[in-house]
């Protein structure tokens, strides 16, 4: 193609190329049965957000390029609103493509793009009209004939939840014009301790901006020359690592790239004028939201933004199917909530969803026809349509595909991805970052994957359920039944645990850059975990020298800086304090408070004794010592049912009396007489409220006198003696009456 002939005509109809494939495994096994862009985000297929953005931006034709499940994507488009809309949507299958570069070369070969076009992934979420970005691109091309691409970047400081935890990119930008001068892009593990600035960038420019606070949105406005450059350079496979670096570092190509930065770029002068030599160049800077769902960590972050209305007017209640309720809770009309269920905040409940009694849902999205059984907890998780959770189960920061069944007494720890039609349980705990699928893995564990391998989402590349590809034990048993991994997923489990391989990220810009710095499989594994929902630097197993607290999860982004440095036990204690404080401030009922504490216990894997001690200590801290005895009575009457949840037998009652003694002896800053008075009051109140029996008080007192109860404050023991004597007398009188 003659690059000089690609003159821009402003009246040319605007087209878009939408890349429906990611050429990585970061969403598997969720994407085994459908392309990633058809997975639901807040109960809407992700490609709907992308196509809506393009239609609002004046795009007349969107060419959706797809390798895996192209027939399913075409069928979806055919029955959707886009089959009848003003914007034409064409699905182009590229079955031989193995990388993004191959897909763009196929588009170039088709000659479907002859003018400037929008290039984006099929999983971009944005509330923007791209018209201003396109206008900026056109204006820059008029001033700079070598300009081929305008990248859409969004400001995202270190630690921001939308920031890619695996990528540490530094952009060198020309102030005023927005021209991208260089890009230093590398993986977060191992951590780079220095940024290399190309010498020619410094010598050729009087002023440059060094930006480490920018995130790639996956959207760009391109000249047709971009497709030609991919065709001419067959070693271009990835957009950032190959194409952008190739353009910026090549003196032969002579092409330029500009950046359009969202949310307050500092390089735009207040009067709108550019620096010397840059007058008139269009570098538009304004607010807006744009982000690409590159992995499940981004999936979680963007879902939270949608639910929290950071993407306004792009919100869940734009659809008539949902109504907005206090606490950012969106409910469909057919949702059924039992009387004692608790839906806390930042939740979407799809049509015909049922939440049973004593169940807690928070920071989660439940699809249509989901059901959560009694005394279960779902936090920070995403349940696709038809998923069912049994009784006394907990799901934490995980994604569950369609028609997943979680049986009774199952705990799903954070970072788990469970594919369609899997059954887990009963009575099992699934460790963090476990992947479970209805099919076995395509490759045996440890088999390396190349970025040139077949797209991992390709349906033809995967065996049918039970097929024996890459696994020695894949043959069915004597009865013809599949040998599921029931030791790991429960006696009634249906599915296979995937090995925690290190190759899942190959093919993506950020993950593949790890190979530029280290060949260690452990590094690749740690990067894959950082790509996963619920991940933190500690979960990735990173050493302090590799990662710092900038890479904590989004909850750290939303909290104060001190919280980022807490140990897991300190985090639990802080959450316990906040839970008790919220229950007091909002005057929650004992049943709701107990449900919140149960979810907290499951999230932090605390045993019964640890939780009993922690909860009682935190509750007792709310007693005003200066207002005895009324304050103690008020607190215990409210919290006695909650404390009773952690008492199951006489041994637990003995432990509870000991907890009361240690609290009064060690944590109450008051005179001995006041501490003794408080201890007696607490013990007697819990006796009156039927939490502690008289025999337990007497037994603890006798053990303490014999020094069998550990170190006991003698002042407290002496103060309790009259109470014990009174209980003894009551028992004797009862015995006499019975005789």
Quote the average pLDDT: 80
Low-confidence stretches: 1-10, 264-286, 444-456, 458-480, 502-506, 510-519, 542-564
- Distinct helical segment count: 20
Describe the largest sheet.
Answer: 10 strands, mixed
Strand order of the largest sheet: 5-4-1-6-12-8-13-10-9-11
Overall geometry comes to elongated
Into which percent range does the helicity of residues fall? 25-40%
State the total count of DSSP E strands: 35
Query: How far apart are the first and last residues' alpha carbons, in Å?
Result: 109 Å
Strand-residue proportion: 15-25%
Classification by helices and strands: alpha/beta
Radius of gyration equals 30 Å
Descriptors for this entry?
single chain, 739 residues, alpha/beta, ten-stranded mixed β-sheet
């Amino acid at each position: 193609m003659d690059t000089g002939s690609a003159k821009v005509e402003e009246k040319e109809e605007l087209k878009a190329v939408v890349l429906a494939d990611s050429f990585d495994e970061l969403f598997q096994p969720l994407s085994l049965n459908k392309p990633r862009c058809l997975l639901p985000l807040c109960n809407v297929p992700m490609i709907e957000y992308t196509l809506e953005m393009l239609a609002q931006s004046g795009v007349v034709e969107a060419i959706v390029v797809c390798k895996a499940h192209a027939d399913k994507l075409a069928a979806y488009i055919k029955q959707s609103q886009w089959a009848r809309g003003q914007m034409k949507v064409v699905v182009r299958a590229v079955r031989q493509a193995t990388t993004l570069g191959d897909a763009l070369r196929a588009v170039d070969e088709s000659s479907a793009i002859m003018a400037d076009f929008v290039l984006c992934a099929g999983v971009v979420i944005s509330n923007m009209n791209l018209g201003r970005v396109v206008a900026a691109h056109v204006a820059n091309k008029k001033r700079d004939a070598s300009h081929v691409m305008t990248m859409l970047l969004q400001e995202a400081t270190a630690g921001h939840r939308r920031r890619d935890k695996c990528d540490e990119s530094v952009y060198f930008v020309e102030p005023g014009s927005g021209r991208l001068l260089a890009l230093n892009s590398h993986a977060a593990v191992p951590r780079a301790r220095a940024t290399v600035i190309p010498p020619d960038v410094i010598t050729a420019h009087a002023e440059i901006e060094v930006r480490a606070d920018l995130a790639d949105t996956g959207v760009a406005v391109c000249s047709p020359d971009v497709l030609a450059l991919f065709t001419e350079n067959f070693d271009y496979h990835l957009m950032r690592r190959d194409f952008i670096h190739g353009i910026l570092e090549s003196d032969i190509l002579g092409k330029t790239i500009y950046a359009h930065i969202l949310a307050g770029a500092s390089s735009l002068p207040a009067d709108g004028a550019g620096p010397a030599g840059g007058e008139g160049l269009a570098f538009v800077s304004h607010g807006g939201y744009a982000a690409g769902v590159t992995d499940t960590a981004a999936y979680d972050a963007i879902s939270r933004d949608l639910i929290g209305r950071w993407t306004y007017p792009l919100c869940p209640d734009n659809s008539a199917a949902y109504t907005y309720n206090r606490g950012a809770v969106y409910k469909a009309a057919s949702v059924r909530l039992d009387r004692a269920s608790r839906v806390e905040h930042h939740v979407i409940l799809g049509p015909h969803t049922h939440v049973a009694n004593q169940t807690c849902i928070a920071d989660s999205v439940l699809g249509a026809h989901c059901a959560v059984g009694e005394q279960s907890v779902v936090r920070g998780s995403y349940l696709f349509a038809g998923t069912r959770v049994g009784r006394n189960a907990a799901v934490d920061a995980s994604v569950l595909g369609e028609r997943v069944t979680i049986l009774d007494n199952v705990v799903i720890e954070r970072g788990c991805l469970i594919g369609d039609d899997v059954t887990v349980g009963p009575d099992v705990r699934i460790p963090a970052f476990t992947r479970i699928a209805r099919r076995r893995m395509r490759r045996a564990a440890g088999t390396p994957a190349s970025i040139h391998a077949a797209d991992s989402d390709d349906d033809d590349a995967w065996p049918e359920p039970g097929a024996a590809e890459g696994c020695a034990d894949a043959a069915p048993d004597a009865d013809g039944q599949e040998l599921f991994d029931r030791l790991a997923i429960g006696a009634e489990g249906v599915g296979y645990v995937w090995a925690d391989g290190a190759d899942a990220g190959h093919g993506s810009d950020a993950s593949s850059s790890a190979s530029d710095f280290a060949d260690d499989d452990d590094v690749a594994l740690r990067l894959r975990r950082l790509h996963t929902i619920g991940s933190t630097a500690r979960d990735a197993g990173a050493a302090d020298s590799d990662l710092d607290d900038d890479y904590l999860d989004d909850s750290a982004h939303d909290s104060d800086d001190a919280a980022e440095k807490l140990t897991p036990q300190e985090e639990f204690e802080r959450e316990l304090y906040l839970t008790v404080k919220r229950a007091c401030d909002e005057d929650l009922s004992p049943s709701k408070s107990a449900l919140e504490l149960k979810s907290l216990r499951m999230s932090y894997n605390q045993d019964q004794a640890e939780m009993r001690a922690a909860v009682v200590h935190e509750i007792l801290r709310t007693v005003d010592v200066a207002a005895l005895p009324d304050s103690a009575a008020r607190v215990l009457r409210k919290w006695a049912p909650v404390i009773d949840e952690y008492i199951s037998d006489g041994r637990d009652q003995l432990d509870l009396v000991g907890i009361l003694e240690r609290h009064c002896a060690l944590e109450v800053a008051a005179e001995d007489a006041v501490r003794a008075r408080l201890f007696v009051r607490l013990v007697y109140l819990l006796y009156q409220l039927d939490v502690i029996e008289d025999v337990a008080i007497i037994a603890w007192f006798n053990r303490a006198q014999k020094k069998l109860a550990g170190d006991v404050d003698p002042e407290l023991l002496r103060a309790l003696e009259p109470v014990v004597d009174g209980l003894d007398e009551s028992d004797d009188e009862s015995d006499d009456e019975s005789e």
